[in-house]
Structures are given as structure tokens and as C-alpha cells.
Specification:
By secondary structure, the chain is an alpha+beta fold. Helix content is about 20%, strand content about 35%.
């Protein structure tokens, strides 16, 4: 009858211990990314200024007229959930100037990553967006752009301005 040596028993136990530690960590990480997700951005929204004062962000141009926001914020979670609340998004003296809906584009790694569906913009410039977009595994320096009438090539409000 063969009896394992003390060294063999220790090595087998050490391997089992490492396997036990690694497996739960991997499953916890997997369940985390598919559940609620941590907030990767929570920031106030500001109205855009036309070029050259307003910056082009990730290839997206600011609107052609100056916009203001009474109150607004954007929140993005790592699982792609996007929440935008805006009140009083207007052009001073002109209201919404024919803009009847808005969407939101999330920028990651200085590239547009995903755009929400459009929601109505009230005559007073109020809107609420609750949607989910695809985000890359690593979203460096996220920014949210508010797009007029679903036009993801322009923004009329943004975070970080």
C-alpha cells in the first residue's frame, strides 16, 4: 500500500485551496457585471455653445445655437444603464426651437459607445431618459451627450463642459 508523503499531501491541499479561492472570485465577478452595476458617471449637464466656443467631443459637434439647462444630470452604470434628467433645456429667447425629442450618447475612451432611444422634449425643455446601451468592458472618462431629435452627430447638452 502506497502512502502519500507529507510533501505530496501539502501540495495537493495547496492546489485545492487555490482552486477554492479562485472559483468563487470568478463567479462573483461574473454575477456582478450582469447585475446592477456600479455607477461610472454621475454628473451635471450643461448646455452647449456653438463652435468655436463649444468643443467637438468624440467627433460629435455642438448645436448651432447656445443652449442652457436649468437643472440636469446624467448617470451611467457599468452595465450600460443610462439615466438622464433635464429641466429647462432651451435656447434663451427661443425655447426648444423645434427640437421635440432628445436621446443620449455615452462616450467612452473618446469614442461614442452607445446611444439611447429618443424621448419627448417638452416645450419647457424637460425630458427623462431611462435606457440601456452597450458599453465596452473599460469605459475611460465617460461623457454623456444629449442629442437633438435623435441626431447623434450633434449635441445640445453634455457632462463635463
Amino acid at each position: 500500500m502506497h502512502r502519500p508523503t507529507r510533501t505530496a499531501t501539502f501540495v495537493a491541499g495547496a492546489v485545492l485551496g487555490v482552486t477554492t479561492l479562485v472559483a468563487p472570485a470568478a463567479s462573483a465577478s461574473d454575477s456582478h457585471s450582469s447585475s446592477s452595476g456600479h455607477t461610472i458617471l454621475r454628473a451635471d449637464l450643461m448646455g452647449s455653445m456653438p463652435s468655436p466656443a463649444g468643443p467637438t467631443i468624440a467627433g460629435v459637434l455642438p448645436g448651432g445655437l447656445p443652449w442652457v439647462v436649468d437643472e440636469g444630470f446624467a448617470r451611467v452604470r457599468e452595465d450600460g444603464r443610462v439615466r438622464v434628467r433635464v429641466e429647462g433645456l432651451v435656447i434663451p429667447g427661443m425655447g426648444t426651437n423645434g427640437i421635440v425629442s432628445v436621446s443620449a450618447t455615452v462616450v467612452c475612451n473618446d469614442m461614442p459607445a452607445g446611444t439611447t432611444g429618443s424621448v419627448p422634449l417638452s416645450a419647457d425643455g424637460d425630458a427623462r431618459i431611462d435606457d440601456t446601451v452597450w458599453l465596452p468592458d473599460y469605459c475611460h472618462m465617460p461623457v454623456v451627450l444629449v442629442n437633438p431629435n435623435g441626431n447623434a452627430a450633434r449635441y445640445i447638452a453634455a457632462t463635463g463642459l
